[in-house]
Amino acid sequence: MLAERLSLKRGGLADRLRRAGRRLPARIRAQARIVAEAEALSAHPKLARRIDHDAVARAHIEVRDHLRGIDAGYLRRGALLGVLGSLAFNLLVFAALMLAVLRWRGVV
User: Fold this and answer.
1) Based on CB atoms within 10 Å of each CB, which residue in 14, 28, 44, 63 is the most buried?
2) In the chain, where are the structural domains located?
3) 18: exposed, middle or buried (Cβ count in 10 Å: 0-12, 13-18, 19+)
4) What is the pTM of this model?
5) Closest Cα to residue 37, out of 62, 64, 59?
6) What is the pLDDT of residues 21-56, one digit of tens each?
7) Is the distance from CB of 59 to CB of 32 less than 8 angstroms?
């Protein structure tokens, strides 16, 4: 779901969580770390016994429910509008500076 909702397609779960950073709330990041730690421990037969399966299941459900609530299209639209707003502001500043230079030179 991290790939679908937050466009984090490369790496394992721990890498994706690190790249997600503050796009996830602190509580959800902590729950996701529990799941990632369980994933890492499950690769080792002796360490796999240390996994608290109930806590991992609760953490997984909480992370899954949060990720289901994220609208990827809304995030993309917000990013696009941010870029367009920045571009529009820069064009306005450039036009104002050009007008000031033309006035200073006596052209306008």
Assistant:
1) 63
2) 1-70, 72-108
3) middle
4) 0.67
5) 59
6) 888 899 999 999 999 999 888 888 888 888 889 999
7) yes
